Every structure is written in structure tokens, then in C-alpha cells.
From TrEMBL:
Source superkingdom: Bacteria
Protein's name according to its UniProt entry: Gfo/Idh/MocA family oxidoreductase
Gene3D superfamilies: Dihydrodipicolinate Reductase, domain 2, NAD(P)-binding Rossmann-like Domain
Record's keyword terms, sorted: NAD
Length: 390
């Protein structure tokens, strides 16, 4: 008989895990209840007892997996732990929703993906909650329809991730190679890296300049400029940082038949050309061009502009992913984001780092995973605080 109420276990009662526990306790996730909580920090046991006194608490996630208290788990733990905890849970038949990013380096994510693929009866999903944002779901539908034609260029400037020095100082593991595995690309920007390739397609190569400890006293990257090659002449630019106090969030996508501009992840401007740009270029006389740019021609004969303003859906997105996760387990509803897709953003972030470390462009199709891990481990060993990864 189909399980109609999924008992979710929270691994890690931090800010994110605490939010999920609250949503479940308040009954905001249809088809899902709070089954148990696990955390190695003794202080979290007291916190759980205060906020969720009737919910079983475990000081070890494996004990929770074996307890019979949960049907599924979410891994709200440091990035490095996502793959190993996911593998352990799936190996015990527990459905798993992993937090983003899927991991720090592609070898561990590939191992997780391969293990999950060998256990198709167990649900494997990832918390790409921005994929539920109507701004981007509408754009995905438009782009996939082919109405605007082939992609030519895309640029995303996402510098709204300002973090003061105190943010990094509050936890010794933050923005370290051994503790976190990276800076802005691993912590703040994974959602945009996922959305970018979800909308535009997976890049084939990347060349990047990263600044490490540029404006913050940290080891990892706090500013990124990257150029990617999508193939067939299409290119892209990605910029992000944590040192811009006012910040910019602007996505542009240029196609053969039009252009999309998204400001602040809420205002969308869609320009549709009357014909393919090359056709317009070939058939318009220089007199027509002059009239167009002097404002003497009705521009609607060449292009039309549609503007949309979206309301904020902050907070609802996590609810939507959790609800979808439960519905997939209960009824087979298609996942918003299959866990296996998490490797795309990890590979792109790692490619940017490796390009900056080596000074060359990096193949993302045949990604040099061993070289990346060797470079990462060299930096972990130089820090002297954590063991190398394998």
C-alpha cells in the first residue's frame, strides 16, 4: 500500500534544518510530517526538545536512519557531507532530498549519482528551490518552445551576495578549502549556476578569473568573472562576488529571434523580433536603419516588447520543493529537480576554480576530475586544518 504521509528526518538542525522542521510542524507540507531530528551538537538536542518535544531526536544520523522513525531525510549539513550522507540513506532504503550544492567536487557527486541510479526504487532529489520561481519557470517554458530561436549570448551578473567580514569570522570552517570547499561559487551562487545551465544549456568549456581573498580575509574566492562556450558560437559571461554592498542581479539572454532581460529576479523584459535578426540585417536598407534609430519608423514593425513584474515568492519555494518531494514518493509525481542534476552546477563551479588555478580554459564535457581534486587537496593541505579528500 502506498505510503501517503512521508515521515521526514532532518539531518542537521541549523538555520535551514530548523526552517524545514518548522514548516513540517506547522503542517505546511502536504503529505509529509516531521519524523525525527538528528544532530551531533548536544545543544541542538535541547533546542529540539523546546521546539519539537514530541519528535524523536538522535545524536547520530545513522541511528536515525535505522530507527524506523523516518521514510525520508533532508541533508542540511556542510557541503562535503551531502554525498556520503545521501549514499548512506539511500543504501538503507531512505528517500533523500539533498541540499545544494550536491557536493564540492565532481568525483564525490558522481559516486553519489551512480549509487542513486543503482537504487531507482528510492527517491533522490535536490533542493533547487529557485526552479519553482515563476520568473524562471515561465522563461524555461518560453525558451524550450523555440519561439526565440537559438541562443547567441547570455550574461548573468549576480553580486547581491554581500557578506561582511563578521559573516566569515563567526565559523572557522567558512570559506576554507577543507571546511567548505570554496567561497561564493560553493556557498552563495549555486542556485544561479543551476538556473543558468537549466535555461541556457550546459556549457562545454569555461575560462575564468577568480580573486581569492580579494576583499575579505578568507582563503577562497570572493569575486568571479567567467566566460563560457556553449558550442555553435554561443557564449556566456558569469560574474558574482560577496563584496558589493548594493549588488546587481541581472540576467540577459540574446537569441536569434529576440532577447530576455531579468532584473532583480522579478522584472522581465522580453523583446521579440519580427524576423530572425540575420534576416532583418540582410533586408533592411541603411535608410530604414537610420529611420529606426532616429525614431521615424514604427519599431513594432521590427520588434515588440513585453514587460512583466513578478511578486516575490520567497519562502514558498522551499515549501514547493518539499511538497513535490512528498508527492513523488507518494504518487510518482515528477520531481522538480532530480538529484542527479546537481552535478552540473558543481562541475561548472569547479571548472571556474580550476581555470583560475591553472590559467587555461577547462573542458566541461570531459572534465579533468582528478586534476581538480589534486589542486583542491593541495590547498586543503596548505591550510593544515583538514584531511585531504579522495
Amino acid at each position: 500500500m502506498t505510503q501517503k504521509t512521508v515521515r521526514l528526518g532532518i539531518i542537521g538542525l541549523g538555520a535551514q534544518g530548523g526552517m524545514y522542521a518548522g514548516l513540517l510542524a506547522e503542517g505546511k507540507i502536504p503529505g509529509m510530517t516531521l519524523g525525527a531530528i538528528a544532530d551531533i551538537d548536544p545543544a541542538k538536542k535541547d533546542l529540539a526538545a523546546q521546539k519539537h518535544p514530541d519528535v524523536p531526536f538522535h545524536d547520530d544520523h545513522v541511528a536515525m536512519l535505522d530507527s524506523g522513525d523516518v521514510d525520508a531525510v533532508v541533508t542540511t549539513v556542510p557541503h562535503y557531507l551531502h554525498p556520503e550522507m545521501t549514499i548512506t540513506a539511500i543504501g538503507k532504503g531512505i528517500h533523500t532530498l539533498t541540499e545544494k550544492p550536491a557536493g564540492v567536487y565532481t568525483k564525490q557527486v558522481e559516486e553519489m549519482n551512480d549509487f542513486a541510479a543503482a537504487h531507482p526504487e528510492t527517491t533522490f532529489a535536490i533542493m533547487f528551490n529557485q526552479r519553482t520561481n515563476p520568473v524562471y519557470t515561465d522563461l524555461k517554458e518560453l525558451i524550450d518552445s523555440g519561439e526565440l530561436g537559438a541562443l547567441r549570448h547570455t550574461s548573468w551578473i549576480i553580486t547581491t551576495w554581500w557578506r561582511p567580514q563578521g559573516y566569515y569570522d563567526q565559523s572557522a570552517w567558512r570559506a576554507t578549502w577543507g571546511g567548505e570547499g570554496g567561497g561564493v561559487l560553493v556557498n552563495q551562487a549555486p542556485h544561479q549556476l543551476d538556473l543558468w545551465q537549466w535555461l541556457a544549456g550546459k556549457p562545454k568549456r569555461v575560462f575564468a578569473r577568480l580573486a581569492f581573498g580579494f576583499q575579505r580575509d578568507i582563503a577562497t574566492e570572493d569575486e568571479v568573472n567567467a566566460v563560457v562556450d556553449f558550442g555553435d558560437g554561443a557564449s556566456g559571461h558569469f560574474m558574482t562576488s560577496t563584496n558589493d554592498l548594493v549588488g546587481t542581479d541581472r540576467l540577459e539572454m540574446l537569441f536569434d529571434g529576440g532577447k530576455i532581460v531579468v532584473d532583480g529576479s522579478k522584472k522581465v523584459t522580453i523583446t521579440r523580433l519580427s524576423k530572425n535578426e540575420r534576416e532583418l540585417s540582410d533586408e533592411m536598407s541603411m535608410q530604414d536603419v537610420a529611420k529606426l534609430f532616429r525614431g521615424e519608423m514604427d519599431p513594432s514593425s521590427v520588434y515588440t516588447v513585453e514587460e512583466k513584474e513578478y511578486e516575490s515568492v520567497w519562502g514558498q519555494q522551499h515549501i514547493d520543493v518539499l511538497t513535490n518531494f512528498a508527492a513523488h514518493i507518494n504518487d510518482g509525481t515528477p520531481l522538480i529537480a532530480d538529484g542527479a542534476e546537481g552535478i552540473n552546477g558543481v562541475r561548472l563551479a569547479s571548472g571556474m576554480q580550476l581555470s583560475a588555478w591553472t590559467g587555461r580554459d577547462i573542458d566541461l564535457v570531459d572534465f579533468p576530475a582528478d586534476e581538480y581534486l589534486a589542486e583542491l587537496n593541495a590547498r586543503i593541505e596548505a591550510e593544515g586544518e583538514y584531511s585531504p579528500r579522495s
